Amino acid sequence: MRKYIILPFFLLFSSFFGSCNYLNVDDYFEDTFQEDSIYANKLNIERYFNGAAALLPEVNKLCEAGNTPGITGSDEGVSCGEWSTMFGAVQYSGTKFLNNEIILPHIESVPNMNSFEKMEFRSRCRFLRAYAYYLILQQNGPMILLGDEILNNNAESDYYARTRNTYDECVDYICKEFEEASVNLPASFTVMEPYIPTQGAALALVARIRLQAASSLYNGGDAARRFFGDFTRCTDGVYYISQTYDERKWAVAAAAAKRVIDLGRYQLHTVADENGKVTLPANVSTREFPEGVGLGTYKLDPYRSYSEMFNGETAISNNPEFIWISNSSGVGGSI
User: What is the pTM of this model?
Assistant: First the structure.
């Protein structure tokens, strides 16, 4: 998996150095890392999983070139890897997905993982798969749900003649996967592994998806009828996007959000006005937080409470507002 990172790095720096170290065989071993080696031990399968997770697009860069499968996501596609330009990374993620293997069926065969580690790792994989489905739903709409089925990649065309599932079917499947994954995910992330998805992350994504599904765009409102009124499945005439309003979807979304709140693990990040020098606008309440910023011994600094989540002043492990975090190359960049 890392060869897509190593290649642009090498190409970038080879123009500055005329010689190379022929004793460096790391790239060779990366290129010859075979599928059976992935499941040989715990370290290898975790490296492979992390490599697959690294292929997911950054949430703030969904519209950048190559972050959706696009026309290269086909069995005729050939991966040309990734390289850096002055405008950012150029990549063809669709072909990258073709080079991946399926992890879930092989977890049991990893020799040095105990039962509890396998349970958690299986949940990580289900989370990753559900999150990939979620991104497809966001960018491309309803999709073909495969579940645990592993497709033959050398069958006749009729074998692949499948129709998409409806939007609501996709939502139910993705949420079910997140919920089942949440059972064995860790309650919180560690300082050493801050990017590992947690139980709260899985349940929070369920809440987000349920809220979107309840909106008028996907819940039989005027927007759904205006934009998707003629989107029907050719096999049975079923609408891909529901044309009938269902108030129950709002209740399901509210219950999903309440479940995250009831975990009792998350709250707004606050920083105290230690020197009492913050001047507040007249319309800012001084009632006790969270109804206001407080007064007296614990008065909040609204600006620092917000800014220190992003400027590095507050350590990730000390911020109770984070549910799931990711590293973003765009933060602090020149663009």
Answer: 0.71
